[in-house]
Amino acid sequence: MDITLLSCEKCQTAFVPPKYACPHCFNEELVQKTMSGKGTIYSYTTIYSAPEKFASQVPYHIILVDLEHGPRITARMVDGEPSIDQKVELESIEDSVYWFFKR
């Protein structure tokens, strides 16, 4: 699955919406770009004690993903145990949460 990011027209920095100005150079000329949803796990943590809304989902994994053609984003792991440098791919986006699975 591809991912839609924002890109700055001035410095070409890509980032996750919503933003109204580039976080790098503060330029307000932004364009949407569709990029690959493939990436690599940079870091992760496992949640064992969660707020009531997510208590039924524990344990679950929060991962930091370096996208192949974009920024690093925070996401949830769909299946299995994550590991550093593991290849992952975007499965879905629900309520602004990015869900990745192992490639």
UniProtKB/TrEMBL annotation:
Residues 8-30 form the ChsH2 rubredoxin-like zinc ribbon domain. It comes from the Bacteria. Residues 34-90 form the ChsH2 C-terminal OB-fold domain. Pfam families: OB_ChsH2_C, zf-ChsH2. SUPFAM superfamilies: Nucleic acid-binding proteins (SSF50249). PANTHER family: BLR3430 PROTEIN. This is OB-fold protein. The lineage of its organism: Bacteria, Bacillati, Bacillota, Bacilli, Bacillales.
